[in-house]
User: Fold this.
Amino acid sequence: MDHSEQMFGSQGGAGACATIPGWARLQLGENPGYAARRVIPDVGLGAPPSGDPAKGRFLSELEGARPSELEGVQQDGMKDVRPSPIAGIWYPGDPAALAQSIDTQLSAAKVQAPPGTIVGLIAPHAGHRYSGQVAAHAFQLVQGLRYDILAIVAPMHYPLPGEVLTTSHSAYGTPLGEIEVDVDAVERLSRVLADSGVRLERVTQDPEHSLEIELPFLQRALLPGFRLLPVMLRDQSRPVVEALGRSLATVLAGRRALLVGSSDLSHFFPDEVARRLDGEMLARLRAFDPEAVLAAEDEGVAFACGKGALAAVLWAAAGLGADRVDILNYSHSGEVTGDHLSVVGYGAAVIYRADDPQRRRTS
Assistant:
């Protein structure tokens, strides 16, 4: 079995950050990596030969599409629920099996509650078999809690148009049931972002995994009744990311809200190198420094496909009074696949408002 076959297991890829071919990522300004969910089954990991029809088909179907062209057909009388494109691939499609798998991972996660009020979580987004146990360390901290709204910020790995995207659906569907989208919050976020010159694009039936992969954990961990504010970033530049973070703080102020930042860490380095790179990114998270998180890749010292999601959540959490980050767990795909020569890093963290009066703050 080659490395790509290992990555493309029955529950999604260990390298969940990269979901379009390498040649397309380079052309469209993405970081290289593996296509863990095969948009086009016959597209390989390397550059296609000249004139390869897969390349033309991929670019014509995705790069040239506008959000209105990506909308699916909604049948009369049916609720507008985003259907899951990854259930049964990235995580179990059977409700009972999914619930049992998540409950087992949550029970195995041994974490200590932070000395303060939880404002946000950081979790990876590979297939549950690869990064689920790391993610469980974050979600275990909110088990049994009640929130009105969950704002999940994740990278958009597909070349859909727009800087910041959200769903046009009124709910997300997983095997565990439906999660209603907080349409009013989406509308308010759109208005607040517009004041900063950033447009919030709406897409229908998007194929993105990095946001949905967190939902079954939240469905099992939290008390029911929460609504979702889903946000996906294509533009991870500082002006857009900071505007998103500060806008989220405005929209969520005064509500029982939980922020979730979705990101994997370095991709396809040997174990020793990955641990060094990921240690640097986690240190920047622990320092509550969104600017440093965004700068790490340009400096060549650390990588995260969802760096913008991480930084935006830090800015949003700071605006909601949070001032500390604790790293809860770290691992990588090699611990599951046995391949320690080319691994994908996963980290979990909690963002909170400390109880003590001498807490640190970020600008």
Confidence is low (pLDDT under 50) at residues 1-11, 18-76, 359-363. DSSP finds twelve helices and twelve strands in the chain.
